[in-house]
Design goal:
Blueprint lengths: L1 E2 L1 H10 L7 E4 L2 H11 L4 E5 L12 E4 L2 H11 L3 E2 L9 E2 L3 E5 L5 E10 L4 E7 L6 H7 L4 E5 L8 H11 L4 H20 L2 E11 L5 E3 L3 E4 L8 H4 L9 H8 L3 E4 L4 E5 L2 H13 L6 E4 L6 H12 L6 E8 L4 H14 L6 E7 L2 H11 L4 E3 L3 H12 L4
Parallel strand pairs: 15-17, 17-18, 18-19
Antiparallel strand pairs: 1-13, 2-7, 3-4, 3-7, 5-6, 8-9, 8-11, 9-10, 11-12, 11-13, 14-16
Length: 391
């Protein structure tokens, strides 16, 4: 689950992480009122969507008068903002964040993310603040400082020193300020069961203070039961409606850009299935894990969601029956053909518990566009061929 910048900064303030003052606004009138309440002579009007790169997409603008605040808010609210993280379809901006101006001397990047290889959180920092961190990692990886922090001992002084030395911060007072900032941010990450925190840019002011000019936070959905205050921040309008509907049926679904729909049980097998499809020359249209409690109804719902994607040209059902029985999946496929007009070829590989019964069910159903596969490689190969119209 992700939240907006203004919500992340509310959490930052609870932990003493320095941020500029700001007020969220849903209309141009509210934006002007917010600027007047904040005072000063310069404000930043910032689009609030769940994506980075807003500034490059025209979603972050500087205003030097309340009239300009109104004008910019009118332009941004209601715009379809396209960034490198939204994809070409973009996202509708429904609110803006009006923030006071800040004295900016330098810009940094600072983030905390889980490193699965190291099995611990990693703090990443760079002097290339304000730039796409993905681009920095690709073109100049030496400019990113990475410090792994063992949760058993938490953030320590030596972690902070490794960060400031790596960033080339030499002033003793600034080093102290940065280390305090990083320590507080790491505490936010751990306390809130975050999956990701990004500040881009983190700015150093003329007086040597560090302030989070931006804030991006994502959370572990499985831990939200511990954080009802975070759950209340959920903005359903920012989430994919198909992914949200799938979750209601116990399905893990993520839409992708390919043309082969995937229905698999188990996240590991799902990833392996997508890799094999790519290896065979195809591209997966989605990640869909039906889990271990799949029923005919949930399988049918999975088909319905997959087929909403107009790019899907074939579907690969790859089930290894353990907890979920293969005959349930077979009945779900039959149910799906009754509920949804399945016009694309469906390649089915069922193995494991009740696989023989499942094969018999599909055989007796005599469904024209269902194609049997013997194993993962055979199924992926046939799904790719079917998508290309070669089967």
């Amino acid at each position: 689950m992700n939240i907006h910048e203004y919500q992340a900064k509310q959490i930052f303030k609870e932990y003493g992480v320095p941020t500029p003052r700001g007020i969220v606004a849903n209309t141009p009138d509210e934006a002007v009122k917010a600027a007047q309440e904040l005072g000063g002579s310069i404000w930043v009007v910032k689009a609030q969507i769940h994506a980075g790169g807003r500034g490059l997409g025209g979603g972050v603008k500087l205003a030097k008068s309340t009239e300009e605040v109104r004008e910019l808010a009118s332009q941004i609210i209601g715009m379809n903002l396209v960034t490198h993280q939204t994809g070409p379809e973009g996202k509708l901006v429904q609110k803006v964040y009006i923030e006071e101006g800040v004295d900016i001397k330098d810009e940094f990047y600072l983030g905390v993310v889980l490193d699965r290889a190291k099995e611990m959180p990693v703090i990443m920092a760079s002097t290339e603040g304000g730039m796409e961190i993905e681009k920095v990692a690709e073109e100049t990886p030496e400019k990113i400082v990475k410090v792994a922090v063992d949760p058993a001992i938490g953030f320590q002084g030596f972690h902070g020193r490794e960060l400031v030395f790596g960033l080339g911060i030499t002033d003793k007072n600034e080093q102290k300020n940065f280390m305090k900032f990083a320590q507080k941010l790491f505490k936010v990450y751990m306390d809130k069961d975050a999956e990701l925190i990004e500040i881009n840019p983190l700015v150093r002011t003329g007086s040597g203070e560090f302030i989070a000019l931006d804030a991006k936070m994502g959370f572990d959905d499985s831990a939200l039961f511990r954080h009802p205050e975070i759950e209340e921040m959920r903005d359903i309008s920012e989430e994919d409606p198909d992914e949200r509907e799938a979750a209601q049926y116990g399905l893990s679904y993520v839409s992708l850009d390919g043309e082969i729909g995937c229905m698999v049980n188990g996240a590991g097998l799902a990833m392996g299935t997508m890799d094999t499809i790519n290896y065979m020359g195809g591209t997966p249209a989605n990640f869909l894990d039906v889990g271990g409690k799949a029923t005919a109804e949930t399988v049918a719902k999975g088909f319905e969601i997959i087929l909403r994607n107009p790019n899907v040209k074939s579907i690969f059902v790859n089930i290894f029956g353990g907890i979920v029985r293969c005959d349930r999946i077979a009945n779900g496929i039959l149910e799906a053909t009754k509920m949804v007009d399945v016009k694309v070829p469906v390649v089915v590989r069922l193995d494991g518990t009740n696989a023989a019964e499942a094969a018999e069910i599909l055989k007796n159903a005599n469904i024209e566009n269902v194609i049997a596969a013997t194993d993962l490689a055979d199924g992926a190969k046939k799904a790719v061929a079917a998508a290309k119209g070669e089967l």
